[in-house]
Design a protein that fits this description.
This protein is mostly helical. The chain is built from 5 helices and no strands.
Length: about 120
Amino acid sequence: MPFKKSFIAVVLFFTMLGLSGATYAKEVRRDNAEILKEVDAKIQAALDAVPAGNSDELATRIKEASETASDLSANYKFEFERDKAVIKLKKARQLTKASDFSGAEQELKNARESFAALPKFQ
């Protein structure tokens, strides 16, 4: 019986170490300026894809820009303005799926301007 109890105690000890190690692990944070450059590049790639008229490709590029933008964070006002810019990307994606490429292009330009204005909210 003592062997069984000590074995269980050792297993529980190492299990707790594994959980606490994952809990205290630090997340690698990227700089907002770097992420904004990446978002801008992805929006530019989407704008470049507008003349081709391929709605699937354009929607995919807009979705990638939106996903990258979700990594941005600073304070409440910054995140509020980021969310407004992401809504513009979502609207551009909806317009793309409806084959309204001129409207999607305008929304992409508006989103790009919104993302360019984000640093002043940090």
